[in-house]
């Protein structure tokens, strides 16, 4: 193919370029320009919830709550016994000053008789009852065990029952004291106060019969009762309030026989 036509074409286009520029026609003819492609819309940015503010020390560490203070004990105390306790009656009342104390003691009273008193004196029973019985129940351990359980069943709703054990004035009494000690494992509200140990610690505490109490023994029994009550109060909370059940009534003393 001759190169001359090609050269002529190029020359012609070169000559026409200025004319085309003045007329607004594009100088070069090529493939139609492609429609501009719109940029893809960006995906929405996910919203992130703000992080919670760090907890303060007060929020992280809960303030410990104090347990509620126990209610003060009921100021009524019923004391039930036989002739041994009858001798110490006034000393016991004096040692329990501040309490509404009822002492019901009778010569020759057995545990069965004491049970009758507990049923009769329900209105005088508070959170604590003191018992000193067993001298007049005989030598049968089985019988005494049954009677102890009958008393404790009657007092099952009482917070503390203090039962003074017996001076071992005869051979069978040791068995009775063993029954009292065993009963404490069956009845969680029963506490045995060691009168046998206290009474035999000083020869001036007992008369020659080995049971009843001269003045020093009366004082010693009252101290044992008072110390046991004080220990119970200290273990549970506040001391009794005089206005817990209204105006304090005087101690009631019952003597029979």
Report what the structure shows.
By secondary structure, the chain is α/β, with parallel strands linked by helices. Helix 4 runs parallel beside helix 9 and helix 5 runs parallel beside helix 6. A 6-stranded parallel sheet has the order 5-4-3-1-2-6, sandwiched between helices. The protein has a domain of 168 residues: SGNH hydrolase (Rossmann fold). The chain is 40% helix and 12% strand.
Secondary structure topology:
Blueprint: H1 3-23, H2 57-60, E1 76-81, H3 83-87, H4 89-95, E2 100-106, H5 111-120, E3 128-132, H6 141-154, E4 160-164, H7 173-186, E5 190-193, H8 195-199, H9 215-236, E6 252-256
Helix pairs in contact: 4-9, 5-6, 6-7
Looking at the structure, what is the overall shape? Answer: elongated
Name the CATH class of the domain at 79-241 and 251-255: Alpha Beta
Total count of strands: 6
CATH topology of the domain at 79-241 and 251-255: Rossmann fold
Annotated CATH homologous superfamily of the domain at 79-241 and 251-255: SGNH hydrolase
Count of separate DSSP helical elements: 9
Query: By helix and strand content, what is the structural category?
Result: alpha/beta
Known CATH architecture of the domain at 79-241 and 251-255: 3-Layer(aba) Sandwich
Helix content percent band: 25-40%
SSE topology string: HHEHHEHEHEHEHHE
Identify the strand order in the major beta sheet. 5-4-3-1-2-6
Oligomer: single chain
User: Termini separation (Å)?
Assistant: 162 Å
